[in-house]
Request: fold
Amino acid sequence: MTKQEFVVEDTLKYSARQFARTTLVGLGQLTAGLRMRPSFIIAGAQRCATTSLFRMLARHPQVSPPLMNKGIHFFDTASRFARGANFYAGHFPLNRPGTKFQTCGEASPYYLFHPLSMQRIAQIAPQAQVIVLLRDPVERAYSAYKQEKGRGFETLSFKDALDAEAQRLDGEEERIISDPMYQSFDHQHFGYTARGKYTRQLKRAESALAPGKLTVLDADSFFRPELPGWDALLKQIGLDPWRPTEIVHSNARPSAELDPALRERLNNVFAEENNELTNYLGYKPSWIS
Reply:
């Protein structure tokens, strides 16, 4: 196959996928009132095993996943949110009374960091249990950098990206809040240290959501072989007891070790945040000795 033939074939496949997606969501909107409402939304944090948790929950006999992707990105994408609640509902399966499928959910890890997502969830999907996973913010920052670099969104070295972060994010959150149709590429893709400052994000989520609708999990503690907290999580979502046959590990990105000097720099960046998070949670997260 020539390069030109490959490009044509790839373009046709992409067009077919887009057509299928548009058709499914369009049909979904027409039957929005007959569709499931999500009972759980995995909202972040990015690169904290959100995909792994979603795939494990999706295997539960009572769970039916979204029609196309695990992440709908409705509450963090201005143009999608503007299309309204029926557009969101159109991404989920039809209610099928009398079958084993009783619930559904989604996972969009930008929701936690986006300044408007939680209040939008409270407005459109107040029934959903919002689940947040956390991990060592140093490891999270480096993992996020590798992801953005792999996608081609990031062109700088990790050191230069850290140096540029403050300028890239300057004023972006305020603009998102003030302009409902503004979508910030930099805010979504370049918040390496900002996304790891969890306490402020958790407090914002807690204040927006109804009492008891926010679940915070320490990813490294949660994904141990015995899966402590799994049964409690299912109960919060409203699912019957069930145990997965394996722990899913998704989206790992093997690479060179983080430079020790950059690790030390990030440890210093997050030192105060780790203390604030400990006070907020009432216990020390797994990465704090």
About this structure: The chain has a mean pLDDT of 89. The chain has one domain: 31-281.
